[in-house]
UniProtKB/TrEMBL annotation:
The species this protein was found in: Methylobacterium jeotgali
Protein name per its UniProtKB record: TIGR01244 family phosphatase
UniProt domain FAD/NAD(P)-binding: residue ranges: 152-273
Cited SUPFAM superfamilies: FAD/NAD(P)-binding domain
The Beta-lactamase hydrolase-like protein phosphatase-like domain, residue ranges: 2-109
CDD domains: PTP-bact
Length: 557
């Protein structure tokens, strides 16, 4: 716990977890305020869990979530009321502590305290509130003033897509002035979490420090983005600071909306409820799989689009294979509930997948969307859509359930001028340029291109974007690079065999290897070795380093 004391009665801190509660108690805090909405990050502990553990320690807890860049006067008033009513001293936390410090600063301004005093007190605690000085002075809406610093290229997001884009840009033009904006300390290799949930990978193999991955010569701005101002070519950060750009690359990933399933927050990570879509829960999946001797295992998939469309059923196949190998499969009923109308979106891969569905005697339930769960009662409810469009509720029981949450673009993207009507960054699907702002580009999960949202897609998009951005700036004379929608989904159908699905726009098959080596329509040991042993180093040492192995962009004819 890294708590910073602002006053004798209030401290602010970055995200806290279950292991921090004893330290919070021993430090003498009598109340906690959570200012961070649940599901902002894959490794974030939900407030319900913090509240439960705090209660056991005799600490009051209050949930006052605010959106970065969207702090309203009502939010400030609620914070002021809460800090006045809760037992003192109070610990307020969010992702980095900045939102909590901002709320305190604005609340102090409402009380009439001088702005220089507020800024000085926040600065002493390690938070720069100078960017909010205009709002504090007016006690009104969000106000940002001049741009603090300007870069040739600003990349928003330090995930797979963002780091790959920055590296590809620097590989082509080493002297390019590039900044990456991301508040996270840790970067995750998320494709590995499926194998963590199957006992193949160790959890720690999928995480590295962000600092170790920022490309040489790139400035890392460790902050959260709250808004885009394309008219003045600026990005607004938490606290109100603005960073300017000549060209902008948007790659913040997507948001896992855990709160979109009623009751999930209260039970996720216990009562047999798990998900490989969260770093801290993938080991729990393996724990449940090993411990289930008989009963019912349920696996779910939400409406598209989602990150790695095959991941929900990968969890099912690998779990079922373990039960088959250990002789327990006849005693375990397996059900796969998916909101989609079919098993997989590319028809060539459906027949081999169905062979495994039959092998594991799994029951398929199409057009079923998980809406509610009660972990203690071991019950789940789905909204079923019939062929005529009518909806009904289906209730089922489980001993173990693997849940995949609904997914969407991050809030600061969905509400921005860059978004299309569905909330994604609006790009031309071939060039990765924004359709309305000529100096903006996007790639990865948050962009509107209708490709599979996978790390493999970002690996192919990054060189295309880098080429076209530098071409637009006059540094490259060749024709446009073209992205064909390539995405890859290594479907782990059993331990030791993978169906390597590779496809582009319109479901066109785009195999990377000759069929004699890897036939993507047939499960193979070679594809498993690719996934287990080759793809991680290709990710860490190739994609994130600007080494475009098997990813050189195709140029327009």
């Amino acid at each position: 716990m890294d708590a910073k004391l602002i006053t004798n009665d209030l401290a602010v801190a970055p995200q806290i977890g279950p292991d921090d509660i004893p330290a919070v108690a021993s430090a003498g805090f009598r109340s906690i305020i959570c200012n961070r909405p649940d599901a902002e990050a894959a490794d974030q502990t939900a407030f319900r869990e913090i509240e439960r553990l705090a209660g056991q320690a005799g600490i009051a807890a209050r949930y006052l979530p605010v959106t970065s860049g969207g702090i309203t006067d009502a939010d400030v008033a609620a914070f002021e009321t809460a800090t006045g009513a809760l037992p003192k001293p109070t610990l307020a936390y969010c992702r980095t502590g900045t939102r909590s410090a901002t709320l305190w600063s604005l609340a102090e301004a409402r009380r009439g305290r001088a702005v220089p005093e507020i800024v000085a007190a926040a600065k002493a605690a390690g938070y720069d509130m100078s960017g909010s000085a205009a709002r504090m002075a007016t006690r009104g809406g969000v106000a940002t003033e001049g741009v603090e610093r300007r870069f040739t290229v600003v990349v928003v997001g330090g995930g797979a897509a963002g780091i790959a884009a920055a590296s590809s840009l620097k590989a082509r033009k080493p002297d390019l002035q590039v900044a990456v904006i991301d508040p996270a300390d840790v970067h995750y290799y998320q494709p590995g979490w499926t194998l963590v949930g199957a006992g193949v990978f160790d959890q720690d193999e999928t995480a590295r420090t962000m600092a170790s991955l920022i490309p040489d010569g790139v400035t890392w701005i460790k902050a959260g983005v709250v808004a885009f101002e394309p008219e003045r070519k600026a990005v607004v950060l938490e606290g109100g600071r603005a960073i300017g750009y000549d060209r902008l690359v948007v790659a913040p990933g997507l948001k896992l909306n855990w709160a979109g399933i009623d009751g999930l927050d209260e039970t996720l990570g216990r009562n047999g409820v798990t998900s490989n879509y969260r770093f801290d829960l993938a080991p729990y999946t393996w724990e449940l799989v090993q411990g289930l001797g008989r009963g019912r295992a349920v696996f779910t998939q939400p409406p598209m689009p989602i990150k790695c469309a095959g991941a929900p059923q990968k969890a099912m196949y690998l779990s079922a294979d373990h039960w088959r190998r250990s002789g327990r499969l006849p005693d375990i009923g397996i059900d796969f509930f998916t909101a989609t109308p079919g098993l997989f979106g590319v028809k060539e891969y459906v027949p081999p997948l169905m062979e495994y569905v039959r092998r594991y005697d799994a029951k398929l339930h199409f057009n079923h969307n998980l809406t509610r769960i009660d972990g203690q009662a071991k019950r789940a409810w789905f909204s079923r859509t019939a062929e005529d469009g009518t909806k009904s509720t289906v209730e089922t029981e489980f001993d173990m359930i693997h849940v995949v949450p609904p997914q969407q673009a991050p809030d600061f993207v969905r509400t921005s001028p860059l978004a299309d009507s569905s909330g994604w960054v609006e790009v031309d699907q071939a060039s990765m340029r924004h359709k309305r702002f000529a100096d903006v580009y996007a790639l990865g999960d948050a962009c509107s291109a209708p490709n599979a949202k996978t790390a493999a897609a970002a690996r192919k998009q990054a060189p295309v974007l880098a080429h076209n951005l530098l071409r637009d700036m006059g540094f490259i004379k060749e024709p446009d690079a073209v992205y064909d929608g390539y995405g890859s989904c290594p479907l782990t159908v059993e331990r030791g065999k993978i169906l390597l699905a590779e496809f582009g726009y319109g479901g066109k098959l785009l195999p990377s290897f000759p069929s004699w080596l890897i036939d993507g329509t047939k499960p193979s040991r070679a594809a498993w070795l690719l996934k287990e042993r080759m793809l991680p180093p290709i990710y860490w040492q190739g994609m994130l380093k600007g080494r475009e192995w098997m990813a050189r962009p195709k140029l327009a004819v």
